[in-house]
Design a protein that fits this description.
By secondary structure, this protein is mostly helical. It contains 14 helices and no strands.
């Protein structure tokens, strides 16, 4: 299993259902649908072209602006993505999905305080169905700010909603590492692997901690599992190099 970047994990799926006003603006619908298809096939350039046409035909539809924002975000045109997420919020009367995704964009832009603000708004909305993602994003923004107790507090709220979220446990572990609480970090990495047995990055970081604790055989075993499961991935290559260095 390949685990995506934290920003991609935090983004809420936008593309369920139809354009909200397609009965009024039928010309927008084909471009919107094509834009979705191109994003899902990892072609943000063609998606961008289609969403621009959709916005031209339906300039007040929040879904269209959100799709365009996502395409800009994939292209790392963050300022333009921000503009269209804000338009999506305006035309949707602050839909928490768009609040969450704007916050995820601010993670990419390293604007931690704004990310925290919008993740908080999304998590507090009782109609938001993925509040655990907003809380996890809030925790990650606090982590990047260096406020580790606040990060753990947000992660705990997320865990209460979604206790089997492997990526969440990974980020709890890295926060414990930053606090030099290695024993708790080990337990959290193990929990991440319990829920996602092929999570190579979690297994690698766990091996690093075990090596620091002089548990060499256990660490080697973990590294060998990564090489066996995922030899051509970045983590598989790193694990292989690490094993060679240990010899």
């Amino acid at each position: 299993m390949l685990f995506r970047t934290i920003t991609t994990v935090l983004l809420v799926v936008l593309f369920a259902g139809c354009v909200s006003t397609n009965n009024k603006q039928p010309k927008a619908m084909p471009h919107y649908t094509l834009g979705i298809s191109f994003l899902q096939s990892d072609n943000p350039t063609l998606a961008l072209r289609e969403f621009l046409k959709a916005v031209e035909n339906n300039p007040k539809d929040p879904h269209v602006h959100a799709g365009l924002a996502r395409a800009y975000q994939y292209k790392k045109a963050y300022a333009l993505a921000e503009q269209h997420y804000i338009k999506a919020l305006t035309f949707s009367d602050n839909d928490p999905k768009h609040q969450n995704n704007l916050a995820a964009l601010y993670i990419s832009m390293e604007r931690w305080d704004q990310a925290i603000e919008y993740f908080q708004k999304a998590s507090e909305n009782l109609l938001f169905m993925r509040s655990e993602l907003a809380l996890m994003g809030k925790g990650y923004a606090y982590y990047r700010k260096g406020d580790y107790p606040a990060a753990l507090s947000a992660y705990r709220e997320a865990e209460a909603i979604a206790p089997r979220q492997a990526v969440l446990h990974f980020h709890v572990a890295e926060t414990y590492v930053a606090l030099k609480r290695e024993g708790q970090a080990v337990a959290s990495y193990e929990k991440a692997l319990l829920f996602a047995p092929t999570y190579s990055e979690a297994r690698y970081q766990l091996a690093v901690l075990l090596l620091k604790d002089q548990k060499i055989d256990e660490a080697k075993s973990l590294l060998n599992i990564i090489v066996d499961q995922d030899p051509l991935s970045a983590w598989g290559v790193k694990a292989s190099d690490f094993l060679k260095a240990l010899k």
